[in-house]
Amino acid sequence: MFGFLSFGNLSAKISEGIDRIPLGIEMVVGIPRSGMIPAYMIGLYRNISVLDLPSFLSDKTAEQGLRKFGSERKSAMQASWILLVDDSISTGRAMREAVDKIKASGYTGKVTTCAAVAEPSRHHYVDIHFCEMPNPRLFEWNAFHRPGIVEEACFDLDGVLCVDPTDDENDDGARYVEFLQHARPRFRPTLKIGDIVSARLEKYRGLTEKWLLDNNIQYRRLHLLDLPSARDRMRLNAYCPHKAKVYSESGASIFFESDPSQAGEIARLTSKPVLCTDEMRMYLPGLRLRSAPQIIRWRLGKPIGRVRAKMRSLFDVFGMDLDAFISRGVRARRRFTKRIRAGV
């Protein structure tokens, strides 16, 4: 199961534990780029100046707005005590490297290390932390950039990678075509997506692929809904079953979905986690696993999905379709069974 922390969760954790920050710290130094998020929160709560690590090492002066800091200084190196902040601590490598750079810069003041989130067995790697969360975990600020997650994830398209069409645009006609051509991007992953799974109709594949190319969104597979019209899609209520089927059969460990009701339903149908991007909430189906078959399905789903994903990749190399291959095998088995039963 994934642990998940949103911006709101992070702010609440820091607010609850802000008294852990010692009095006397004169500057907060964040490790770019994720470390700047908790660094600025701490700095704002305690009215302490904030710099990113490269600026600190360059001995720059923190900018001030209308509200002045408690004390003023000429440059960063004049701070007698700094708080070095990152968003999380796991191996501790990034924090050690940052401390080494500060020591090598000639800074002679005191350094206190801080991580917003610590792995339970690694919290001693820093002086201060605000909460503990084991891996695998995902944060709102790195959800679209996390190596090992994005490449093996399923992403909805409308509402996630681009905005949803308005009711007027969603006419399955000329206005919808215009939307497909000029849809505004929403979230932009920096890594190649595993599977894009959309309830868009198959007849719009060409326009969809062009939009993805124009917006430099890389992906391995694009799954659309093979129905004649939007009216058929609505009549059959095919949204969630389509997405859940692809998610169940893939090696993906998480699905990014914008609609809260669909996120909950996909999680229920697949017994796999779904991140709702509109709520920035993780739907965790494991909390509702009550029967032995459900538990077994959850435990086996991920390794079986990974095997299927590897087979898909192998078939792709030879230009073959795994689903079509399996379907042909199933049909052949049925024909063989009928012949046996008929005594042919």
Structure characterization notes:
With 344 residues, this protein is of the alpha/beta class. The chain has two domains: 3-65 and 73-138, 3-Layer(aba) Sandwich (Rossmann fold); 150-314, Rossmann fold (3-Layer(aba) Sandwich), CATH 3.40.50. The protein is 39% helix and 19% strand. Strands 10-9-8-11-12-13 form a six-stranded mixed β-sheet, covered by helices on one side. Strand 11, helix 9 (260-270) and strand 12 form a beta-alpha-beta unit. Helix 8 (239-249) packs across helix 9. The longest helix has 26 residues, at 292-317. The protein is elongated, with a radius of gyration of 25 Å. The chain starts with a strand and ends with a helix.
Tell me the layout of helices and strands.
Elements: E1 3-5, H1 7-16, E2 27-30, H2 36-46, E3 49-52, H3 53-57, E4 81-89, H4 93-104, E5 110-118, E6 128-132, E7 137-139, E8 154-155, H5 174-182, E9 193-201, H6 205-214, E10 219-225, H7 230-236, H8 239-249, E11 255-257, H9 260-270, E12 274-276, E13 281-283, H10 292-317, H11 322-342
Parallel strand pairs: 1-7, 2-3, 2-4, 4-5, 5-6, 8-9, 8-11, 9-10, 11-12
Antiparallel strand pairs: 12-13
Helix pairs in contact: 1-2, 5-6, 8-9
Largest sheet: 6 strands, mixed
Give the averaged pLDDT, no decimals: 86
End-to-end Cα distance: 51 Å
Give the domain tally: 2
Which structural category do the helix and sheet elements fall into? alpha/beta
Instruction: Provide the CATH topology of the largest domain.
Output: Rossmann fold
CATH architecture of the largest domain: 3-Layer(aba) Sandwich
Proportion of helical residues = 25-40%
Assembly level: single chain
| Strand order in the largest sheet | 10-9-8-11-12-13
Taking all Cα atoms into account, the compactness measure Rg is 25 Å
> Could you spell the SSE succession in H and E letters?
EHEHEHEHEEEEHEHEHHEHEEHH
CATH class of the largest domain: Alpha Beta
